[in-house]
Amino acid sequence: MSRLERARRDTRFGAAAAAATFGSLLMVAPIIWMVLTSLKTEEQAVSFPPALLFRPTLAHYRAALDDAFAGFALNSLLAAGLSTLIVIALAVPAAYALSVRPVAQWRDALFFFISTKMMPIAAGIVPLYLIARTLGLLNSLAVLVLLYVGMNLPLAIWMIRSFMIELPRELLEAARVDGAGPMREIGSIILPLIRPGLASTTLLCFLFAWNEYFLAVNFTSTTGTLTVFLQRFLSFGRLYTAQVAAVATLVNIPVVAAGWLAQRNLVRGLTFGAVK
Amino acid sequence: MPTTLTLRAQAAAEAASRPDAWAGWRRRWALRLPLLPALLVTVALTQLPFAMTLYYSLQRWNLLSLRPRRFVGLHNFVAAFNDSTFLHALGNTLLMTGSIVVCSVLAGTLLAVGLNRPFLGRNLLRTLAITPFFIMPVAAALFWKAALFDPSFGLFGWLTASLGLGRINWLSQHPMVSVVMISAWQWSSFVLMIILAGLQSFPEEVEEAALVDGATRAQIFRLLTLPHLRPFLELSALLVAMYALENFAAISQLTAGGPAYATTNLSYYVYLQAFSAFSIGRASAYGAVSLLVALALVTPLLRLVSGILRLEGR
Questions:
Q1: What ipTM was estimated for this complex?
Q2: Residues of B numbered 88-147 whose beta carbons fall under 8 angstroms of chain A's beta carbons: which are they?
């Protein structure tokens, strides 16, 4: 390779890097814009050309936290947190039975789980609603926890299984020779080994439950999650731009944090373990 | 296949003597036990409602009507295909889902190609570029509506006015474009993650060898990288389609399905039928149709995944 060729390649690469930089910044621009807007006064937020230099104010955050926000935030935390705990508790043994000591029909079972994830919720919403109404579960956190368990369980099983399948066989065999039962095998050998993967699975399930809207808005109102809060209390628009921005920023802090933390194993979860 | 072997051994043992048969049965169920709770929960929360949807779809049943529910056969389905709004929603679903898939796969792939090679600040940029995927869709939609799409107070209105295009009212003039724009924005991050993983798994030696052989970058991309990326592209397109089919938050916040049903997709129409019209039978029939649409997508997706499972070879 001549020096000239190498140099040409490098400049072209420089152009690619510049394009990638521009594209990435464009992707994140609406989010940066949202955070900036949340720190402006309402007048500044809707004045153009937009002021990039301004004295930031936290007034909108204070107003957001004064409102019913805290109650809905707690509901979000409980619905997402509890459903994720249950999902992990159910998914770990299931993934074990589909990888480490597989049942004969492990392939069928895996397909069953993934196929339920692919069915549109619209196809089940009516009976679910009627059942919840009959059981008096409408507008309760319990119904959301249940529904989110159903929503995230297939994903968690596939994801956790993809981590278990990579464990060295010899290690598990050794444990079995030592007389460890399934409970001890999972608790003291498998779980410690797949801890990073388990953490990512937890974060991803939490993220999906936290952001879920369709079920929350149809099954709950006053005991809803933050998605319901946003929809009910902030749909008036117009001069409330900065206020909307502040609440939208607040509700996204936990999920953006979760997403960033889970980054490394995220692809695996999002593709049901198909892409490592 | 150690499992089939053990099963065969078990079968042989069963044939040999009764107590061993009992032991084999117990062994099989001991293996299945850890799977059962998850299986039962999933059946109860997903399969049962689907079955009930199919049952309800065969009935005339409106919660607001005093008439008792009764069996009407396929009447709701016939009515569905005579309902121009339903057909409109079906068309919207295909258009919306297709546009979101095309836009997000294109943008996500371009970004992934750009972010594949190391350069200063790349990891930070990658983290920033995937962030839109984490954003709560309702929050994103509300903010875009107030701060970007609004014709008099939004950034886009100001931008188009500065460019001499006038203050475009995105949500009423281009409602479909608006919904696709915000959804594709979030899903591009998702595609970016998958395609980037695909690019990272492309063996560097192959590329170096091709360079030594005098191939240009463009040739390498077209003849080597792209074929390698194909399953990743297919997987991301199908997954985006699967999720975009259920697009709800953006529609309900930005346009509420309007104007004049211009952005009503199937799931939004099911929602309107069930929770505004309280027409249980109708909504169930529409839900069943959306199930069929999903199946058309899911079948190739499952084939793809089954290929991956086979590769895993267990």
A1: 0.85
A2: 107, 110-111, 113-115, 117, 119, 121-122, 125-140, 142-147
CB atoms under 10 Å from CB of A77, counted, come to 15
Q: Which of B188, B15, B171 is nearest to B101 (CA)?
A: B188
- Residues B140, A247: Cα–Cα separation, whole Å: 11
Residue A127 belongs to domain with CATH number: 1.10.3720.10
Domain enclosing residue A250, as ranges: 60-270
Contact (Cβ atoms closer than 8 angstroms) between residue B105 and residue B198: no
Closest to A248 (Cβ–Cβ): which among B37, B143, B239?
Answer: B143
A91 with A156: CB under 8 angstroms?
Answer: yes
Counting the structural domains of chain A, the total is 2
pTM value surpassing 0.90:
no
Which residues are CB-neighbours of B137 under 8 A, at least 6 positions away?
Answer: A211, A213, B186, B249, B250
| Residue A48 within any structural domain of the chain | no
Q: Is B252 on the interface with A (CB under 8 A)?
A: yes
| A201-214 confidence digits (pLDDT tens) | 899 899 999 999 98
